[in-house]
Amino acid sequence: MSRKIYVNLAVKNIEESIAFFSQLGFKFNPQFSDSSASCLMISDDIFVMLLGEERFQTFTPKILCNPHTHTEMLLCLSCDSREEVDQIVRLAVTAGGAIYNEAQDHGFMYAHGFQDLDGHIWELVYMEAVMGLTA
Length: 135
Hints:
Number of strands: 8
Largest sheet: 4 strands, mixed
Distance between the termini: 21 Å
Shape: globular
CATH topology of the largest domain: 2,3-Dihydroxybiphenyl 1,2-Dioxygenase, domain 1
Radius of gyration: 15 Å
CATH architecture of the largest domain: Roll
Order of helices and strands: EHEEEHEHEEE
């Protein structure tokens, strides 16, 4: 069975988050979107549900952390090239995001990332083919 993953992220403003990720080239599924949530499509099997904080809070009794000051998780996406990694980071910064760390070049692996409008960390990684495996 092929599994899909739905990552849920709390955001302060749905419309601003949609505009931000649209500028990075991502699409949204309107079937799973409304005024309190939007379904960001990463791939055919990976989705990020951007949930307004009030809506997100209905899924958990825990207190939401402030991702600008606390790390809740690191989201990591594979890219097809080093250039794609850098391009997405540039687009994110232009759209209002921020760089949280310098690029990391490990030879076979290149990584960089950004913080979105809400402070969530998105890492981007390109890995060269190693022993017949790719990212």
